[in-house]
Structures are given as C-alpha cells and as structure tokens.
What does this fold into?
Amino acid sequence: MYCIINGFVINRKNFSEYDKIATIYSLQLGKVKVFFKSVNKITSKFISFLEPATEVELQIVKLKNKNYDTTFKFAGGKVLNFNDKLRENFKIYEYTCRILDLVDALTFECGKDENKFFLIKRMFDFLDHNKNIEVVFLAFVFRFIKLCGYMPELNKCVKCKSSLNNKFYFYFDFIDKGIVCSECLKTLALSDLEKLKISLSAIELLKKFYKLNAEEIEKLKVDTEVIDEVSKFIFLYLQNYLHRPLRYEVNF
Ligand SMILES: [Zn+2]
It folds into this structure.
C-alpha cells in the first residue's frame, strides 16, 4: 500500500553501509520511520532529502515485516523546502536541532496531529528571521507540551483552588502538575525534587505563551532572570513526559 506524506526530517541514522532510516514528522501520519535503501551510494540522488529540518513529500510503502526497525519504505518523492536558512547560522541551527530533538522525544510513532505539524512549520518560518529567538523558542516548547496534552495548572492553586493574587512567589508541585500557594505548601511534605519556587512574573509569561500568537510573542520584552526561570521550569517539567533523554537541553 502506497501513501504520500508531507513532513520534516527529524533525524536519520545509518542502518547498514548503504541504507539509512529517517524519522519524519508528517502531516498525514505524525511521526514515522522510513527505510531509505541504497541512499548512501554516491549515485543516489536522494541523500539531500535527509538533512535535518528539510521539508519533503515522500511516497512510502508499508512494510509487511519490521525487519528494518521501521514501518515504511521510501519509494520516491521530492524536496519541498531545503530550509537552508536554518543551517546557515550556528545559533539558528542549534535551535533547529533542539526543536527536532524535542519533537522526537515527546511524540510516538503514527500519532497523527496536524496541529503539531503546523506548529513546527510555523516555528521554522519564524526561526530564520527572529530576533527574540529564546522567548519564541520557549513559547514553542510550551505550546508543544500543551498539544501533547500535558498542560499544567497555572491559574489557581491545585490544592485549595484559590486564585493567585497578591503574592510574588509560588511553588510548582511536580506531583500534582500545578501551582501551590505558600499556605498549602506548609501542609505538604514535598521534597526539593518535587517542588520549584516560581515567581508571578514567570507564571504570567507562561500564560502568555498560550494566549499570544507568534508575532505578539516576538515583541515581548522579558527580563533575563524571568527567561532563565521559565527555561529552568520548562526543562524540569518536560522530564515527566519525555520517552528518552534530550540530546540538547532546553535551557542554555
Ligand atoms: Zn492553596
């Protein structure tokens, strides 16, 4: 059975001397692994398909057995966008690698999600000209976490349900996945690994990541300490949901 998919190359690895397996995040099927036979041969014209972040249209065929540790085999296709701009500058390429690594570590094969595909596509469009790159990247990570269904409670205390007013600092409870007020914290016996002090400014920024579009996020002026705090929080929060360790850490 043939099918045609549009997707981004997340990574690729050698399977044997001439063959490769590529992981693609596609619009039609979500994440898929595709076997590329003889792609390492000098005569193959398809090796350029497999640069990370390249947008491709592939004809793939489902394999009857999984001898290759993959479900599909490459049967033809074309490059839609080489995304060269994402590889020209070292800083942008580093962000590109972080995005691809994160998508791979947070998704499972054949879990179709068009919103995730379009979020990745939009992030790549933004990345090549973005000035506020760190904040836009953190917003991408947080939105991707939301699309995976792992949204934390940020609007009220997860214990007493009171709204978060008139205080500068709160705690995040990694067990109940939400903010706890200082009153409730006194009644809990959370270890340092289970809680993190978090400022109201950091909580407000996280909420903006959900509410604002990319153009608005690009224009936000955020203090370095708040960026560092949000970056640390997101990295720690992510650890609950990754199915393998990240190769690139979220915070710098
Ligand atoms: Zn409370």
Notes: Residues 157, 159-160, 162, 180-181, 183-184 surround zinc ion (CB under 6 Å). The chain has a mean pLDDT of 90. The two ends are 44 Å apart (CA to CA).
